[in-house]
Predict the structure of Amino acid permease.
Amino acid sequence: MPHTTVETPPETGVSLSHGLKQRHLSMIALGGVIGAGLFVGSGAGIAAAGPSIVIAYAVSGLLVMLVMRMLGEMSAAYPSSGSFSAHAERAIGPWAGFTAGWSFWVLLCTAVGLEGIGAAKIVTGWLPGTPEWAWVALFMVVFCGANLAAVKNFGEFEFWFAALKVGAISLFLVLGGLAIAGVLPGTDSPGASNLSDFLPHGSQGFVIGLLASVFAYGGLETVTIAAAESPDPVRGVASAVRTAMWRIALFYIGSMAVIVTLVPWHDKEVVGKGPYVAALDHLGIPGAGRLMSVVVLVALLSAMNANIYGSSRIAYSLVQRGQGPKALGRVSGGVPRAAVLTSSLFGFGCVVLSYWRPNDVFPWLLNMIGAVILVVWFFIAVSQLRMRRRLERETPERLVVRMWAFPVLTWVALAGMTAIFVLMARQSDTRVQLYSTGAMTLFLAVLGYARQRARARG
């Protein structure tokens, strides 16, 4: 098999640029793990699971570490802007690449709209009377424009966004640690008083917290997509994957432990203001809560920027592999501009639906993407299971990153994903998401298989 770093569009002969530097990739890897789901969505998980949310994040974090290691192994061997979609096509078949790629594209584009709405709500809270849709449109124009111009613009935005997020959460961990130790001026150590009711809602609450924690980890895949547009994609992927473990442990599990130790899990502000803002307000540090609101806004805008980028590259890669409309694969200035525009317009269309059909079409769309990240992880695990044997047999020198304890931990990861699917089926609020995502996945799989058979015939 030929070794390529990025796909080349057959109709133009023009390839994606290599405008992302190693510092961009390093910071994307570092800050990409600190997503909007951590800042915004973790409050509901804490309210359901109480202090046991720390265990929930640790369990789901272990699963994510395994998924990242598997994805890193394949992406270091075959760097591609299609990432797991290209790996699924190589390992399982074109129908699998089609299904994984387009389902993820729908997820990312919808997330662009959701993040735009979330960011607009924060700004309108500061500037009452200004229309939400206008702020969403402004954010969309800024990030769409940045992604249309050059990939280095995406890299620079993410570099500074990530630097701010990493700095803020590091400061939060330091302040929280000092408060817990009782050495922060003006505060008394809470000790273990907030941890006594460890499972307030029993196993049911823990399961809800576990499911919430799983979906907070979305966004880790971006670095394997972005690496294909760097001068040394193998080094970029390998570095990101090898540091994933401590990043997840520190930022996710560490911050959850600080929050539930400082703030009672049933405090209404944990959900109302968000857990990080609630924790800082609880410490009584002047202006800290408002500053964290700025960081949450940055996290939402960062995710919005990253998802416009990721969706456009997934679409571009699919087209180069004959899995989508050729117009989306056109490249100019090293950027797939048609794919950037289409992905942005789809995202803004989701925003319009949220205002126009908030009670039927929009919830249906949200349910449809509810479990896509798990479907993608499943494709990653199966692809790695199949590709590893082939790599060892044909090109062992490509195994720069290796999955731990293969194949045992790959099967452990698959079992963990299956268990989460079962848990989703047993919860009334996640059951609809599971079935809706399942229907979309099945539709794409059938369509992809039909296309595969048609191409094979002629």
